[in-house]
Amino acid sequence: MKNWAGNLGYRAARTEHPSTVAELQALIGAASSVKALGSRHCFNTIADTAGTHVVLDKLADEPEIKAAAGTVRVAGGLSYGVVGAYLQERGYALANLASLPHISVAGAVQTGTHGSGVGNASLAAAVRAVELVRASGEAVRLTADDGGEFRAAVVGLGALGVITHLDLAIEPTYAVRQQVYVRLPWERVLADFDAVASDGYSVSLFTDYTGDAVAQVWRKVRDDTPGAERRADFHGAPAATAAMHPLPGMSADNCTAQLDVPGPWLDRLPHFRLEFTPSNGAELQTEYLLPRGHAAAALRELRALAPVLAPKLLVSEVRTVAADDFWLSPSFGRDSVALHLTWKPLQPQVEAVLPLIEERLAAFGARPHWGKLFAADAAALRPLYPGFDDFRDLAAKHDPTGKFRNPFLDRVLYGA
Ligand SMILES: Cc1cc2nc3c(=O)[nH]c(=O)nc-3n(C[C@H](O)[C@H](O)[C@H](O)COP(=O)(O)OP(=O)(O)OC[C@H]3O[C@@H](n4cnc5c(N)ncnc54)[C@H](O)[C@@H]3O)c2cc1C
Questions:
Q1: What CATH number should be reported for the domain holding residue 112?
Q2: Is there a single domain that holds both residue 131 and residue 220?
Q3: Are 287 and 85 in contact (CB under 8 A)?
Q4: 153 & 198 share domain
Q5: Domains in the chain: how many in total?
Q6: For residue 90, how many other CB atoms are within 10 A of its CB?
Q7: Which of 61, 113, 155, 274 gets mutated to test ligand 1 (max ligand atoms within 8 A of its CB)?
Q8: Residue 321 beta carbon below 6 angstroms from any ligand 1 atom
Q9: What is the CATH number of the domain that holds 223?
Q10: Choosing a second label site near 117 at 20 to 30 A (CA), which of 12, 177, 227, 388?
Q11: The domain containing residue 298 runs over which residues?
């Protein structure tokens, strides 16, 4: 079986589809090497195993809204698209979504997946409880009251157990307007990045780092916000007059509705519609998160690298992510800017340029997205995460024989 991008084939000897938590417990307890597989949207081998893949498509019980607690309990293998539709039908919403609704909830939070917005933390920040099966086969439920155990397990890189269910914070449903603006002058972005990034509920910049202007700005504004309506001009960028795809030359048909038409949160916060292929399809991705205060300096570095980057790029997206407190979250403890690169499917050339990008962004303490392509190993990553050693200690405690380990985790956590 291959991942979504098709750039890697998993080595798993077998794939199991347990239909009860008890079945999953027995399976994990008896296994020597096992890994949960979500919707396969990672670009690296984080989800790979030579042993057993467990896919939770048969453990897909209906979500359960707990109105008094302000949460919904969802099966970890469900996609945000399915959860979103369930909530919307009942008058509820999540605070934010990633660029696509196709990804599984458990797989997304395990890697620190995020959307955009200076006030929006990663999707993991909505998690109020996780129910997971440990390497021993024991099933546990963890909440913030469990302190470090919880803060390690939510963004857990698949190293601390297989998540069967999560409680996510919900709120009353809301409508969002999506507006696209074109040709935002770089000088305005670099002069006051925060003014641009915070001018909307969720703001994304799309660029290839060449030229004097950012090609597109996607601004998503909650309809209940004063001044939500589209403006003629966004910091010097005129409003687009037709729907656009972030990738030049591609049809906007697979994108969520734009042109300031209000619509439900789940149909506007992602860039891509559930029923279509997101993004380009034939692509690779890389992303680095660093403190938002360094945004302009880091963007200057990438602009200086434009001659090297642009020929390999489909597009780059610049977003913001508010701080959270999950030990291995790339936005742990830092209000962040996220510099994302969607590459053409040129893996050797992309991998050759990653060390150069990481060298240029090192001064800013850039942390890679765990689900995308990056070069850093444990020696480079350990100083970036105050909870790194504590996380490894918990992994050793709960998975002493390394059932959930794989060569990816060996590289990024242990340096082997
Ligand atoms: C087109 C596209 C757009 C994207 N857009 C964004 C974006 O906007 N923002 C962003 O931050 N990222 C984005 N990503 C990256 C994506 O969100 C992450 O790769 C995410 O981890 C994918 O979830 P998944 O279910 O496919 O995970 P998988 O690749 O299946 O698994 C990822 C990890 O989670 C573990 N895992 C999966 N299920 C479980 C479980 N039940 N219990 C425990 N561990 C589990 C796996 O073992 C593995 O370690 C995008 C990816 C693509 C392909």
A1: 3.30.465.10
A2: no
A3: no
A4: no
A5: 2
A6: 13
A7: 113
A8: no
A9: 3.30.70.2520
A10: 388
A11: 176-368
Taking residues 228-255, what's their average pLDDT? 94
How confident is the model over 268-272, as a mean pLDDT? 96
Q: How far is the CA of 4 from the centre of ligand 1 (A)?
A: 10
Q: Which of 339, 337, 345, 344 is nearest to 305 (CA)?
A: 339
- Measured in Å, residue 387 CA sits from the centre of ligand 1 at 22
**pLDDT grade, residue 416 (50/70/90)?**
low
How big is the chain by its Cα radius of gyration, in Å? Answer: 20
Residues 6+ apart with CB under 8 A from 101: 79, 80, 81, 84, 266, 270, 272, 273, 274
Residues 147, 185: one domain?
A: no
- Residue 163: CB within 6 Å of ligand 1? yes
DSSP-derived pairing of the beta strands 171-172 and 92-93? antiparallel
- Cβ of 162 less than 6 Å from ligand 1: yes
Average pLDDT, the chain: 97
Q: Report the nearest-CA residue for atom 12 of ligand 1.
A: 113
User: Ligand 1 within 6 A of 336 CB?
Assistant: no
Q: Whose CA is nearest to atom 11 of ligand 1?
A: 113
The token pair that represents 79 in the structure block: 């996609």
Ligand 1 pocket residue status of 103, Cβ below 6 Å: yes
User: How far does Cα 385 stand from its chain's mean position?
Assistant: 18
Q: Is the CB of 40 under 6 A from ligand 1?
A: yes
**What confidence tier does 195 reach under pLDDT thresholds 50, 70, 90?**
very high
* Shortest-distance atom of ligand 1 to CA 112: 11
| Average pLDDT rounded to a whole number, residues 275-297 | 91
Asked if residue 181 is part of any domain, the answer here is yes
